[in-house]
């Protein structure tokens, strides 16, 4: 707790909560909650869990949980928060970035992305194989033993597993390219 | 076409029954769930989006309400703006901007007064203060 007559200029790191009633200039990092009282004047970058501003703040604010600017509060500076509440009457200018939106999005994407990704790869593989395929696959039906040398040729980019699948599919030539993606899905299902 | 329909539908709404009591003779139209507006709109009155779709550039003399579940993509200018749904685009509120607790706003904002309820989502630059731009019809 920094009272109205207290003044700090410099860097503050506090494990716990902080309440500022006076003047602070510099950099403030708090593991707990930060409260700036009506009389508080902060010219500093401010980081905390819950940040409540009733006084004046000039500087960037990071609130890991929530930022509240009360109606007597004023905040000028860029803000990075999870949740934000600004009461009517408060003054606020700056850029707001809320992690909530992007944070929830990525976990969804990785689940979706893997499925589309393998598809283009086999396609690319088939494209590469296509010129070779008519030559190679025809012998494949006759003699599957010839496929290993084919693997060596294309193995540079494509995993062996895919090529094995391709080899199996090679028996049903015309359907082979579209089926490639599907057998995997069927196995998963 | 859609714009005309929307305005045509708004015409009966302009009767005093729906008029905002705060302003006399306030014109007002509402975009319901099946309504949509696309393009540029300059309107002296107010507009409410309640489940409808709105895209474009809207300059209003009155207020804009974006109801829950409504998505608006627009360059928007109005006196009071209340968002409970989603807005994507640059916003100017000559008086006050209110973001409800489930509101989502992506875009830069210029306002005179600002109220954001806990739970609202905002991404963009906020500027508060006086306006160089003149209010149409005020």
Could you characterize what this model shows?
The complex is a heterodimer of chains A (189) and B (138). Chain A starts with 6 loop residues before the first strand and ends with a helix. Helix content of chain A is 35%, strand content 35%. Chain A has 5 helices and 10 strands, in the order E-E-E-E-E-E-E-E-E-E-H-H-H-H-H. Chain A is globular, with a radius of gyration of 31 Å. With 189 residues, chain A is α/β, with parallel strands linked by helices. Chain A has helices at 100-112, 120-142, 147-154, 160-169, 176-188, and strands at 7-14, 18-20, 23-30, 34-36, 41-53, 56-58, 61-69, 74-76, 79-86, 91-98. Chain A has a 6-stranded parallel barrel with strand order 5-6-8-10-9-7. Chain A folds into 2 domains: 7-105, no CATH class; 120-182. Chain B has 138 residues and is mainly beta. Chain B has one domain (2-128). Chain B is built from 1 helix and 11 strands; from the N terminus they run αβββββββββββ. Chain B has one helix spanning 2-13; strands at 28-31, 36-43, 46-49, 53-60, 64-66, 71-83, 86-88, 91-99, 104-106, 109-116, 121-128. In chain B, strands 6-7-9-11-10-8 form a 6-stranded parallel barrel. The radius of gyration of chain B is 14 Å and the shape is globular. Mean pLDDT of chain B is 82; it is low at 1-23 and 134-138. Chain A binds chain B through residues 66, 68, 83-98, 100-101, and chain B through 96, 98, 104, 113-129. Strand 10 (91-98) of chain A pairs antiparallel with strand 11 (121-128) of chain B, so a sheet runs across the interface.
Q: Into which percent range does the helicity of residues of chain A fall?
A: 25-40%
Strand fraction band of chain B?
over 45%
Radius of gyration of chain A: 31 Å
Biggest interface:
A-B, 20 and 20 residues
For the termini of chain B, the CA-CA separation is 29 Å
Kindly state the number of beta strands of chain B: 11
Structural class of chain B: mainly beta
User: What is the chains' assembly state?
Assistant: heterodimer
Kindly report how far apart the N and C termini of chain A lie. Answer: 59 Å
For the sheet with most strands of chain B, the description reads: 6 strands, parallel, barrel
The coarse silhouette of chain B is globular
Mean pLDDT of chain B: 82
* Order of secondary-structure elements of chain A: EEEEEEEEEEHHHHH
Which ranges of chain A are low-confidence, i.e. pLDDT below 50, for 5 or more consecutive residues? 101-183, 185-189
Strand order in the sheet with the most strands of chain A: 5-6-8-10-9-7
Note the main sheet of chain A: 6 strands, parallel, barrel
- Find the count of extended strands of chain A (DSSP E, 2+ residues): 10
Query: Low-confidence runs of chain B (pLDDT<50, min 5 residues)?
Result: 1-23, 134-138
What spatial form of chain A do the alpha-carbon principal axes imply?
globular
Average per-residue pLDDT of chain A, rounded, comes to 70
């Amino acid at each position: 707790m920094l009272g109205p007559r207290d003044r700090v200029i410099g860097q503050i790191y506090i494990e716990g909560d902080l309440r500022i009633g006076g003047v602070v200039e510099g950099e403030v990092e708090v593991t707990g909650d930060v409260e700036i009282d009506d009389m508080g004047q902060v010219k500093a970058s401010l980081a905390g869990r819950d940040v409540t501003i009733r006084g004046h703040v000039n500087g960037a604010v990071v609130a890991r949980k929530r930022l509240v600017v009360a109606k007597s509060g004023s905040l000028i500076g860029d803000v990075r928060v999870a949740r934000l509440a600004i009461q009517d009457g408060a003054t606020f200018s700056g850029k707001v970035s809320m992690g909530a939106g992007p944070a929830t999005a990525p976990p969804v994407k990785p689940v979706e992305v893997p499925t589309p990704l393998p598809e283009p790869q086999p396609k690319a593989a088939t494209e590469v194989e296509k010129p070779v395929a008519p030559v190679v696959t025809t012998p494949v039906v006759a003699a599957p033993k010839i496929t290993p040398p084919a693997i060596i040729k294309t193995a540079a980019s494509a995993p062996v597993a895919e090529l094995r699948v391709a080899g199996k599919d090679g028996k049903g030539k015309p359907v082979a390219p579209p089926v490639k993606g599907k057998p995997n899905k069927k196995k998963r299902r | 076409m859609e714009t005309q329909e929307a305005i045509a539908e708004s015409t009966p709404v302009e009767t005093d029954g729906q008029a905002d009591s705060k302003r006399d003779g306030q014109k007002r139209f509402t975009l319901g769930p099946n309504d949509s507006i696309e393009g540029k709109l300059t309107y002296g009155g107010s507009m409410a989006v309640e489940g409808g779709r709105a895209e474009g550039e809207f300059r209003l003399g009155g207020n804009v309400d974006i109801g829950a579940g409504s998505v608006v993509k627009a360059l928007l200018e109005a006196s009071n703006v209340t968002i409970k749904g989603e807005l994507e685009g640059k916003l100017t509120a000559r008086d006050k901007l209110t973001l409800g607790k489930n509101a989502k706003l992506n875009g830069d904002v210029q306002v005179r007064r600002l109220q954001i309820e806990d739970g609202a989502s905002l991404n963009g630059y906020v500027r508060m203060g006086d306006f160089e731009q003149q209010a149409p019809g005020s």
